[in-house]
Amino acid sequence: MCPQAFPRLLRALLVFTIGAGAVFPGPQDRPPDGKGARIRGPHAEAATASTPVPITYHGGPVMLGTTNVYFIFYGNWTANSATTLLPEFISKLSGTPHYNINTTYFDSANRFISNALNYAGSTTDNYSRGHSLSDADVETIVTSAINSGKLGPADSNGVYFVLASADVKETSGFCTAYCGWHTFMLFSGRNVKYAFIGNGDQCPSACLPQTVSPNGNAGADGMASIIAHELEETVTDPLLNAWHDSAGDENGDKCSWTFGATTKASDGSMSNMTIGSRRYFIQQNWVNDGDGYCALSWAGSGQPAAVTSVTPINASGSSSVFRAVYSDGAGAADLTAVHLLFNSAVNGAGACWIYYARAANIMYLVDDNGTGLAGSVTPGGSGTVANSQCRIASGGASSSAGGTLTLPVSVTFSPSFVGIKNVYGYASGSTGGASGWQTMGTWTPGVAQAAPTVASVAPINGSGSPTIFTATYNSGNVSAVYLMFGSTLSATGGCAVAYVRSLDSIYLFNDAGNALVAGSVTPGQGGSIANSQCTVTSAGAISAGASTLTFPVKIAFSAAFGGSRNVYAYVAAVDGSSSGWQTMGTWTTGALPPSAVSLSPVNGAGVSATFRATYSDPLGAADLTGTHLVFNSTLNGAGACWIYYSVFDDVMYLVNDAGSALVPGSLNPAGAGSLSNSQCTITGAGVTTLSGTSLSLPVSVSFAPGFNGTKNAYGLAAGSSGSSSGWSTLGTWTPR
Fold first, then answer.
1. What is the four-CA torsion angle of 204, 206, 207, 210, rounded to 10 degrees?
2. In Å, what is the CA distance from 341 to each residue of 97, 359, 417, 425?
3. At residue 2, does pLDDT exceed 60?
4. Residue-wise pLDDT tens digits, 251-269
5. Gyration radius of the chain over CA positions
6. Strand (E) or helix (H) holding 473
7. For 725, phi and psi rounded to 5 degrees?
8. 103 neighbors 113 (Cβ within 8 angstroms)
9. Secondary structure of residue 589 in the 3-state scheme
10. Whose CA is closest to 315, among 407, 414, 420?
């Protein structure tokens, strides 16, 4: 069963095949069937060597921007170098000529995939679903990892890889039909992409290209090739309706078990590329250029450089720190120069025109005539340079990640430079060419902005942990925002969180309140920071409008920090104005336990009935581990009709007459069969429903002839955090 997840719409079990091109599908096109993955062998090589079938675009989305990669190491990975090798592989793969092949794919708006990856973190799972997994088990492993908070909130621009140790089987065909697969699900309102990768040490002849490998771990090296394969297919065909050929084969399938030019080392290991400082043996990918072909790399750019965003925008003020973001399909290092221009029209004369030379890491201001340079500053350095329209200074260091470059610049406009100005951006790359001037919005210099204020913090005046808080601030010119929980207005011994806009980073103050803890969290990405009072993770990207900024953050409070705490908020603007600290309300930081909510029908009579018991958990229905429903005159398991439901296993049990053990056997709520003791017989009555924080369990109960009189109905719910609702009376029932 999949907690909090909608039923799977499609499944793609992919590993190695054929195919490539770029036209819309014909009437005979077959989508990926989910079981077309091929293990190594003559049938795979023969398919790959056959006449290439054009790859076509079927209208679905692709994954744009930077793709976040998450690893869930399932099973036993003790002393296995894979836990180091595989994260390093993903971290170094971004921006490489091999991953650049994916930039030849685009969506219906002609937006190209970028050569940008981010290794967002990993977690472990110690056989929570046993040693033999079904496809549904893999989905549950992913949702459980997300619900645990260890990988941050559900990430619709991420790919979650379940990496199984060599002693774990996948019953739908690992080692016999495939070596890995990818698919997606709707989870917490988001399309979440995920994949299963088995360890080829379990079946070297099927899933390992070689048994002597370049990094001394044949299983891990083989998994790296399959991870690359599934990742390339996920970003180009995330919902199984974008890029594949008429046979249902995706880009990785079309080049399965082909490796191009290889090099053999003295130890006998083969490799075909170096990424970072390590050699790898990675299968080729399909280049969607011309007629298409298999290759290990692509040096071109599927798109010109582009201006992605400028923030803040469509606002006003005499000064601001602007963050301009540029992209290049061939990687940020391919960018040669980027520009930011403020003027009534695209005209360098009489403008505030900023030019950044990436390789030299120097930011210039163009002169009043638009024909020369007025001077320069270094991002992250000191100093200013001015013309008659503006003065610029560093707004922080420039940063690059994959195919994206971010340039912060502090701009103070001259008093004479008034009126609404357009904001233009321009980017040029050495491979794919220039973006041309793009209008990003407007800015009105010379108009003083009102002092910023804190609009709201939600939820407020409640309780629970962990909780996603959303703080909204009124200002189009925010430099930093703060959210603090404590008994008094002091960061000492509190949970004080800060977001710095120019760095796009979330920080946490230490226990003493006089410095920041080590590290930071990027909004919308994984990772966490903690002090003794709380642990902070991202709850999504920052939303910034013309006059507001919304900051979502997930906070898990420590047990020692329990009790009612004041909630304080603060916002500072670039011009130096601020809201001052504002008290927004209170929050009780202890985690709320689950609860037994209701029973239907209730307070009725009959020798049999189909009951529906509803339970709730503030941490989400997936946090529930088990639920109980007891019919008896008093709260006593002896002589009772006591039904126990295991959420993880999706099965019901019946407790014996003595209330000391389970009767033999179990029932799936939607399956056949029955269980009996001397008080009742139970049968399944339908599928258990999980939605948000609620779980609803249907069960049919036939009461035994000797089980007479009015009986109380008791309920209990238990959560994975160890908390319990305790027994609560849900009503009565009179069997006869």
1. 50
2. 32, 20, 13, 6
3. no
4. 999 999 999 999 999 999 9
5. 29
6. strand 467-474
7. -75, -20
8. yes
9. coil
10. 420
Which DSSP state fits 228? H
Residue 658 has what DSSP assignment? T
Would you say residue 576 has pLDDT above 50?
A: yes
d(CA 584, CA 483): 10
Q: What is the DSSP letter of 148?
A: T
Tokens, residue 246: 């008429």
pLDDT surpassing 70 at residue 426: yes
What is the H or E stretch that residue 614 is in?
strand 608-616
* 199 CB neighbour count, 10 Å cutoff: 28
Token readout for 602 is 């209730």
| Number of Cβ within a 10 Å radius of residue 466 | 19
Both tokens assigned to 365: 């201001």
Contact 142, 192 (CB under 8 A): yes
Sequence-separated (6 or more) residues with CB below 8 Å from residue 43? none
308 CA to centre of own chain? 21
Cβ-based burial of 600 (10 A; exposed 0-12, middle 13-18, buried ≥19)? middle
Closest alpha carbon to 699 in 649, 656, 641, 658: 641
* pLDDT single digits (tens) 585-622: 999 887 677 899 999 999 999 999 999 999 998 778 88
CA dist 702 and 607 (Å) reads: 6
Separation CA 467–CA 472 (nearest Å): 16
User: Is the pLDDT at 458 greater than 60, yes or no?
Assistant: yes
The band of 291, judged by pLDDT with boundaries at 50, 70 and 90, is low
Three-state DSSP string of 699-722: EEEEECCCCCCCEEEEEEEEECCC
* pLDDT for the residue numbered 327: 87
* Residues 341/344/348/349 CA torsion (nearest 10 deg): -140
Q: Which tokens sit at 499? A: 């977001």
Our measurement of the distance from residue 14's CA atom to the centroid of its chain's CA atoms, rounded to an integer in Å, reads 21
Residue 400: enclosing H or E segment and its boundaries? strand 399-401
Q: Residue 414, exposed/middle/buried by CB under 10 A (0-12, 13-18, 19+)?
A: middle
Using CA atoms, how far apart are residues 455 and 467, in angstroms rounded to an integer?
19
Percent of the chain at pLDDT exceeding 70: 90
The pLDDT score that the predictor gives to residue 14 is 24
- What separation in angstroms does the CA of 466 have from each of 176, 271, 490? 42, 46, 22
Give the Cα-Cα-Cα angle 443, 445, 451 (nearest 5 degrees): 95
Least confident of 44-58, 184-198, 684-698: 44-58
Q: By the 8 A CB rule, do 151 and 71 touch?
A: no
Q: What is the pLDDT of residues 130-142, one digit of tens each?
A: 999 999 999 999 9
Whole-model pTM: value is 0.45
Mean pLDDT confidence for 537-544: 88
Take residue 322 and report the two structure tokens written for it: 């602007």
